[in-house]
TrEMBL record:
InterPro entries: DUF7322
Comp. bias (Acidic residues): 1-12
TM stretches of this protein: 71-90
Pfam families documented for this protein: DUF7322 (PF24008)
Residue stretches making up the DUF7322 domain: 35-95
Top-level division of the source organism's lineage: Archaea
Protein name stated in the entry: DUF7322 domain-containing protein
Chain spans, region Disordered: 1-37
Keywords, ordered alphabetically: Membrane, Transmembrane, Transmembrane helix
Signal peptide residues on this chain, from the entry's feature table: none
Length: 106
């Protein structure tokens, strides 16, 4: 009879899994030269990335500080700051979009 607690002698699972470096498909590499991009587009992009990251941080940490620490004023202020920053990202994006449309139509 087979013992359910009897383990096989070979405990190395590596041969069963294969070599991931060899078996996975190769991802093509792309060389990107940022100097080709429009400076206004780069500035808008990086400003939006920074403000969005700060806003998401404030919107997530603010409620946690309020709930876990009981610092309701600090948590509410952080959440409001995050919401305002997200709104500013939206406004900045819309202004950029209007500016691009004006340049295309001119």
């Amino acid at each position: 009879m087979l013992d359910p607690f009897d383990e096989p002698d070979d405990t190395d699972a590596t041969p069963q899994l294969g070599n991931p470096e060899h078996d996975l498909p190769k991802t093509p590499s792309v060389d990107v030269d940022e100097s080709d991009a429009d400076p206004e587009v780069k500035e808008t992009f990086w400003r939006s990335v920074f403000l969005t990251n700060v806003a998401i941080f404030a919107l997530t940490v603010g409620p946690m500080v309020a709930y876990f620490r009981g610092w309701w004023t600090v948590g509410a202020a952080a959440a409001v700051l995050g919401a305002i920053m997200l709104f500013r990202v939206y406004q900045h994006y819309r202004a950029f979009e209007r500016h691009q449309d004006d340049e295309r139509n001119a």
